[in-house]
Structures are given as C-alpha cells and as structure tokens.
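seq:
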Amino acid sequence: MNNHFRMALLLTLGMIPVGVFCRALSCLIEIRREWKRRLLLVTGSFLLIYMVIFTGDPVNFTCAILFFLFCMWIVCNGTRLKRLTIGLMLASTILALNGLFDSCIAYYLPDDWGEELYDLQYLVFRLASTLFLYLCIHHYRPEQDFELSPSLWQLLLLLCIPPLGIVFSLVMFAPYNMAGAFIGLYSALFLVAVFAFVGIIGAVFVLNRHQKLERENALASYNQKYYEAMELQQFEIRRLKHDLANHLQMIQSLPAAEKDSYIQQMIENPAFEKVLVYSGDATVNAVLTAKERMMRQQGISFCAKVDIPNELPFEKPDICALFANALDNAAEGCAALDTGRRQVELTARAAKGILALEIRNSFVEKQEIGAAQLIGGLPKTTKTDSANHGFGLRSIQTIVKKYGGTMELRQENEWFCLFCYLTQEESLY
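struct:
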C-alpha cells in the first residue's frame, strides 16, 4: 500500500476516536461554540488519545495531560474546579489506557505482524478505549446542566490523586521498555487506575443525583411554607372580616376623639383590602392581590393581563410558588430604578390544560447574561449571601419541569423577560 495513502487513511480513521472522546466530554461539561476553541479542543484530544505512554518515560505523560488541561480551561464553560476535575479524570483515564496498550499489551504482539497490522491494532485499541469511556459516561445519562457544589468538586479532585499517582509512578519510576517479568504486575496497576477513574466518573453522577434530590426537597419545603404563609394570611383576613361587627361595636363605645384614629387603623389594615378577582383560580387571585399591594408600596407600576377562566389543574403550592417567585424576582429586578421607571407586566393564559406565563420587568441597564453568570443554566444571585438566596428561579425551574414544561429567560432592550408554560394531561378546560 502506498505510504501516503496509508497515512491519509490512518489519519481519517484516527479522527473517529477523537469524535467519540469529544462526545463523551460534552456529556460532562458545556463546550463553547467558537470554531477556534473547538479546533483547539480537537487538537488537544487528538494528542491525548494518540500519545504513546511508556513506563520510565514521564515526558509524554506530563506534556499530554498539561496540554489537555490547558485546552479544557480555554474551551469549556463551568467553574474552575469543574473544568480541572473533569479534565483530570478524562485525561488520566485515557493515558492509563494508552499505557496499558503501549507498555503492556504491545509487548505480546508478534514481531512478524508488520507495520500495517500494528498500526491497525493501535488504532483499534484507541477506538475501543474512547468508546469504553463514552459508554461508561452515557450509562449514567447525566443532565447537560448538572453542577456540584465546590466542596464536592474538591472531594472528587482529591479522589483522583491515588489512581493518578499510580499511573505517574509507573511512567516515572518503572524501568523503560521493561522485561516480561513485570508485565503482569504493571498491567494490573494500569487496570486498577482505569477502573478507579471510571468509579470516580460514576461518583460524579451519584453525587449529582443526591444533590438534586436535596435541592428538590428544599424547594418543595420552601414552596409549601410559602403557600402555608399565604393561607394563614388569608385566614387572618377572613377572621378579621368576620369580626367586623365587634369592630363596629368598639367604634360606638369609643370617645369621639378616638373614633377617627380607630377607623383609620381599620382602613389601613390589609385584611380590609379587597381581594382582586384576576381569574377563576382563587390561589392566583390571592397571590396577585398580595403582590399588587407590595408593588404599589414600592412604587412599581404593575399591569396584569390574566385569562384563566377556571381553577388550574395543578397543585396549589406550586401555583402559589410559581406566580409569587416570578413576581418577587421581577420586583427585585426593577427596584434599583427611579420610581417612575419601575414597571412589571404579567401575562397569563390557561387553555386546554396548558398554563402559559410571561413576566416582564424593567431593569437597570442592558447587560447580556454570559456563561460565567450562569449556574445550572440560571443567572447567579446578586446577593452576597448566595447560600440563602437564589431559590426563586430554581423553584420556578423545578415546578416547570415537574409539569413537563419549559422556561426561558431573555432580554429585550431594557426589559428582562421570564416565559414559561406548564402542561397537564387531565385538562379541566
């Protein structure tokens, strides 16, 4: 076979493992879309996959892993710990598999195979290695926007040190081009490192599921408390109205000088404000009435266009949390503006089991939301106490996913827009 044709064929086939590896990487972390960055990632992945790893030769191992981590740093989105940990896990796994083939398996290949058969075996093993890694990752089916807390990423980074130390020790201290007496031992050590890294990759998704369940439980508790607080407020309103006769008797018995003061206190009591009827759903009416009063006190112009003719077919704590959190976020978003510029607009429509909701609020300035300002696809909270804030959008996102809908955040000139919809199979309309 012509050497030039053989090299072109090997190079073409050699891009298949690179594509599989990049696909596996995209399951774990978001890759930026710029073609220059993606070309850098392909280059780094190609060098990583086809780097020859011999025991006693640390140069290839060190150069390959450092260059790939540099590519991860430039090409991928996510926190520093996430990029470093995922890059180290994947690079170390591939290099351990390379060392297994180049230093151990290749030792047993017949000498009379020739260069072409060896190249084919070399290519097949690289493809098998990347395919093995992809299948391990795909088995756990991670979410695209998965994220862990910094402490968990630090824990995973520490767990990478022992298997990485095994591979590094083999390429640093083991004899170069070793004799067959140690092949079995070194093969076992390479395999231990490989499966240790696979176990760590699996731990990423186990921890992600555990953290997700904890967050969902926290949000459910948060939403329930929100709904219970609103119900308690409505109960107090009904109780005070029920006692209206007692208040009138009290007014009759008061001296003339104190009557006006007592009447003024009753007028200012929220219990005697009328519950506005925005829709056919009592929970929506109660939430919008409370939020309209709050925005009026904050000098926010509030406009609501609601077309919900009947009771919504969703759990009431979810409806309460959905509308309340969305309006709280909108009010907070325009709080920094001058009083005359604070505006919030709500549009809601329910038909055929689908609830569509859009809330728009004016905000300080046009500022694009970049990847660095996102956590799990949501903007970071601007409050200093981030541990106890930022639940609003996460709560909305959880409710939307629960009912098979979608949520979209966008900016339109000087407006910030939240759009979402919920679906219910058993329609009440």
